[in-house]
Amino acid sequence: MSSHVIAICVLALMFIVATAMPINMGVIAFVGAFLVGTLIAGMETKAIMSGYPAELFLTLVGITFLFAQAQNNGTIDWLVRLAVRAVGGRIAAIPWVMFAITALLTSVGAVSPAAVAIIAPIALGFAAKYKINPLMMGLLVIHGAQGGGFSPISIYGGITNKVVMEAGLPISPLTTAFTSLGVNLAVSVLLFFAFGGAKLMRQQVPKAERSGKGLPVSPFGPPVAVAAQGPQIYGDAENESASEERLTKERSSAAVGAVSATGSGSAAGHAGVDLNEGPTFHQMFTVVGLIALAVLTLLYKLDIGFVAITIGLLISILSPQVQKRAIGQVSWPEIMLIVGVSTYVGVMQKMGTITWVGDSAASLASPLTVALLLLFVGAIVSAFASSTAVLGSLIPLAVPFLASGTGVDPIGFIAAMAVASTIVDVSPFSTNGALVLASAQHIDRDVFLRQLMIYGGIVTLVAPLVLWVLFVVF
Prior knowledge:
This protein has helices at about 5-20, 25-40, 45-50, 55-70, 75-85, 95-105, 110-130, 135-145, 155-165, 175-195, 195-200, 205-210, 235-250, 280-300, 305-320, 320-330, 330-350, 355-360, 365-385, 385-405, 410-420, 430-440, 445-474; strands at about 215, 260, 265-270, 270-275. The longest helix is centred in the last third of the chain and has 29 residues, at about 445-474. It has a two-stranded antiparallel sheet. Strands 2-3 form a two-stranded antiparallel ribbon. It contains 23 helices and four strands. The chain has about 475 residues and is mostly helical. Residues about 210-275 have low confidence and may be disordered. The chain has one domain. Helix content is about 70%, strand content about 0%.
């Protein structure tokens, strides 16, 4: 067995182990890079570590740190309430508000699972109150997150564009971004009308709630920060920052609702919020910072990681205690996964495995068939594993195939691969699907799980074929 085949088998084994066991794939990938690099390729440690994506690491840390602060000081909650007030009494517009907010969050740099974790509980709370189909609401949240996920300053977009640029292939970041948005928006429109959207268009929010007072923003009470995802290395920072967050959000999260009994006999708290309350100084400063992030990175081409950390530092100076919690909320598991897989792919590149795979694929009779197979591999693997890991590993495998003059348009194929590898995150086995399942209220979770599984299976089988026809064949 050649060293190239061994390296590919180890990559496949990583996906299998990470899917079957609750082990971060990044940890497995670092070990794989060490073992394959030293034992199979005879590489030194310095050569193995040369594939470590330091720039991408900085980007991920900076973006997730900034958005953790935006969540903790109530900025995200305020923006959500502002958007909900804009729809007036139109119930049918609520799912689209949730779609737009998650798309906006991911488009300016939020990690997709983080955006879904923020919005899904709010969206499913609205679904329970206003009798909106929870499956439709949950799917629109996920498709919204994926729709905005490939903007030039997003995490997915950054990974994809970096890989393609380093390969010297023609690239169109906006093509990938608008392809993802267009496909997810089209699917969402179909879902909206398939699950009762036409009926919702004839319904209105009760007049007593249209003024903004008493409108439930979160079904779990006043807005609270997302639980820390990383280790709390600052001792009592959790308690200190929680108190600080309550102070910074005092005006925007004043509760005027009460606990009411549900049909099953349990109680669920609904926070009533006066939507006429303006934002706090911290929230306005954070919004200005997010706008500055987009302007400085898009117009002035500054490094997004350094800019995000700089803005995060300025926010930290205003609320030092909130910063302590935000450090723990940086998406360390996702960062470990991405940089681990990227390091392993770097080992494969130095071994020549990437070129070998591309040359082998190019030698097949039908390049279009190869392109279709790659799209199916991306979709199926991503349905059970991390989309970021798939983007970081499969796109490099396809680069030599695209560069070998097969006639397949690289721009169209990359856009198709990007969408095929992320649109399947509706699967309950993916992080986004699991978050929606966990956020559903007052429904049979077993039935909801089966619905997500069926829909996820349909998308996994149909999406690659449709994308192949639209963006590769034509």
